[in-house]
Amino acid sequence: MANNKEPLQIETKKEPKQPKQKASTSTKFWVAIAFGVMILFLLILVSSIIDIGERLAKIHEYVAYGFYGVSFLLTYILIINPVRIILVSPAFSIETVMDDKPTHRRYQTYKRVSKNLMERDEISQTEKDKLALALNNPEALQLALNEIYNSTMKKKMNQVIMKHAKTVLISTAISQNGRLDLFTVVVVNIRMIKELVQICGFRPSYKNLAKLTINVFSTALIAEGLENINLNDILPTSTANMLGEIPLIKPVMSSVAQGITNGLLTIRIGVVTRKYLFADSKELSKKAIQKGAFMESLKMIPIVVKDSIIHFPQKFFDMFKRNKDEESTEF
């Protein structure tokens, strides 16, 4: 059986001049595309806010003003501030490779990452002590970071990914509005990326952040388009006709399919983010990273679906249980 551990090695951004120039050009290209995507999303958001505001203005102009104020506040809290947190985080170019002893440059970066981890609550005190003891030994520090990454960090990051995928799955399955699904997917994915960055204490490079931005917006557009999904297009005719005879089953199945698809795409974005932060040297190409992320998504989505099925009805029943308890106390 193949070993799933990914030994950690950290590369600083200092590279030979020629490759650096090529990377710089590529980075500018991706950042420019991501900037255009962000502008397009903001235009869609502002257009939707103005449209709702105009309807509210028919009730009273102050109702519209209040809505605009709340919308601006929510936009800052849910979108602008998480993006700000991501951008101001330090950036490291991290790769996991099988061999190669740490150079002096990598050792200095190991120390920076280790000190960052020791100041945070994501790892246990025992793991912090291991880092402190290995801080003056490059190879021991590399081994300690590798162990922490495989035993703690990766697990925590996967938990964050599945938590947000479950949120997207339930939200978009319940929602019957494509535009609302678009905003939900964008907000939840930004929050997920922010939490992954906060767990690690650093962010991907601007180039990879730009790619993530494009992935998030593409997923959101897919989520909006799924609102018009027709089960007749994806199921055999006989099966679709049989489901059509059962009351309400087709709308429910359609909503569930939307939620699962959006949850799967959210997991994929989360795994790609994790791989940009801790990328296996064998998966540095775009094609390999995307393939690896998709395979991991397929493994995680059954767990997310199971948790969603379990927790959503439980919350629904708990709500009625609380109401019954309140009524019984009144009597």
UniProtKB/TrEMBL annotation:
The chain crosses the membrane at residues 29-50, 62-80. Pfam families: DUF697. Its main location: membrane. Residues 1-21 are annotated as: Disordered. The keyword Transmembrane applies. It is a multi-pass membrane protein. InterPro entries: DUF697. This is YcjF family protein.
